[in-house]
Amino acid sequence: MAKTRITVTFEPAEESVVRDAAAEYGLDLSGFLRTAALAEAARQAHIKARFAEVDAISRSAEQAESGVAPASTPEDDAAMDTFLDAIDSGSGARGAVA
Predict the structure, then answer these.
(1) How many CB atoms lie within 10 A of CB 27?
(2) Higher pLDDT, 46 or 64
(3) In a 3-state reduction of DSSP, which class is residue 3?
(4) Which residues of 31-70 are buried (b: 16+ CB within 10 A; e: fewer)?
(5) Do 53 and 47 contact (CB within 8 A), yes or no?
(6) Which of the residues 18, 58, 65, 90 has the least number of beta carbons within 10 Å of its own beta carbon?
(7) What are the residues whose beta carbons fall under 8 Å from the beta carbon of 62, sequence distance 6 or more?
């Protein structure tokens, strides 16, 4: 199968952090970046899928003739809190290099 080459540009400090992380896991830079990119793509897809129902409800409310979304109940609010907590706990967060 043919492979595609992609160029990535880093600041010098960022490059050092990424190369050190790759070495720590016994990967070359290409393998480390490939793994990281695929993991981030999967994380983003997971978040999108988890929010699909909420997004559909939101779009429906926005398109309603009245223009007013239905009021939420305390049970709705609790369910949303549980839903968001599940997303936060299962998907990690993107970090930044200082």
Answers:
(1) 15
(2) 46
(3) coil
(4) ebeeeeeeeeeeeeeeeeebeeeeeeeeeeeeeeeeeeee
(5) no
(6) 65
(7) 69
User: Which among 81, 42, 75 is positioned nearest to 34, based on CA atoms?
Assistant: 42
Give the tens place of pLDDT for each residue, 59-96.
Answer: 777 777 555 656 778 888 888 888 888 887 765 554 44
Distances (CA, A) of 53 to 24, 33, 48: 40, 32, 10
Q: Among all chains, which residue has been given the structure tokens 């999108």?
A: 48
Q: Is the pLDDT of residue 55 over 60?
A: yes
Joined together, the tokens standing for residue 63 give 């398109």
- The pLDDT score that the predictor gives to residue 56 is 81
Written as one letter, the residue type at 39 is: A
pTM: 0.54
Alpha-helical regions (H) of the chain: 12-24, 29-63, 74-91
